[in-house]
């Protein structure tokens, strides 16, 4: 698996996702982005803020395979917003309440056991077989998930096993035979308001100084 050791997520990666979502609704075209079109695995996450100040997930889809960044960000910005089967497609009326996060993944390495990783630093990919069903199970959590949820390492692993679709008993023996790859990421996020301010600053630099001072 290819890795990107030095690539860092920026707000321009996130703004490009908003560009593509708005273009989807308006039918407009989007100018090619200025950031490097390198190979990278990535995820795009959309959250929606409520009037009570809480947020809820509206879509999160990505790829663990390194792909050309320009096309992959476009594809997964729209797929995560409109094609995550766990949620109805995001509607245009929801856009002002959205927050977008881009995670660029890097530093993939095989863990020696199911405890060989650090909460808040590593994402996980698990893979295991079920001899009784003669099938393979796999799933991933991004590095921020366990820390956000307040999970221990064991609870994270058990939730990841369940996420894979496996419905059997989760035993110490099952944990011990997991194949685990750990990885890191850099992330950047923008709310829609921050995105509007960013795009306005391109037209009016003086406004940018006032906004971000």
The CATH topology of the largest domain is given as Glycoprotein, Type 4 Pilin
End-to-end Cα distance: 41 Å
Strand content: 25-35%
The chain-level structural class is: alpha+beta
User: What are the low-pLDDT stretches, counting only 5+ consecutive residues below 50?
Assistant: 205-213
Largest sheet: 6 strands, antiparallel
Please indicate the count of domains.
2
**Can you count the helices?**
7
CATH superfamily grouping of the largest domain: Hypothetical protein ph0010, domain 1
The best one-word shape is elongated
| Overall helicity | 25-40%
Summarize the SSE layout with pairings:
Layout: H1 11-26, E1 39-49, E2 55-68, H2 69-82, E3 98-110, E4 123-130, E5 135-141, H3 145-149, H4 153-163, H5 172-176, E6 179-191, H6 192-203, H7 205-212
Antiparallel strand pairs: 1-2, 1-3, 3-6, 4-5, 4-6
Helix pairs in contact: 1-2, 6-7
Tag the structure with descriptive keywords.
single chain, 213 residues, alpha+beta, Dna Ligase, domain 1, 2 domains, 7 helices, 31% strand, disordered C terminus, AMMECR1 domain-containing protein, AMMECR1_dom_sf, AMMECR1_N
Description:
With 213 residues, this protein is α+β, with helices and mostly antiparallel strands. It folds into 2 domains: 11-107 and 185-212, Glycoprotein, Type 4 Pilin (2-Layer Sandwich); 109-183, Hypothetical protein ph0010, domain 2 (Dna Ligase, domain 1). It has helices at residues 11-26, 69-82, 145-149, 153-163, 172-176, 192-203, 205-212, and strands at residues 39-49, 55-68, 98-110, 123-130, 135-141, 179-191. A 6-stranded antiparallel β-sheet has the order 2-1-3-6-4-5, with helices on both faces. The protein starts with 10 loop residues before the first helix and ends with a helix. Residues 2-199 form the AMMECR1 domain. This is AMMECR1 domain-containing protein.
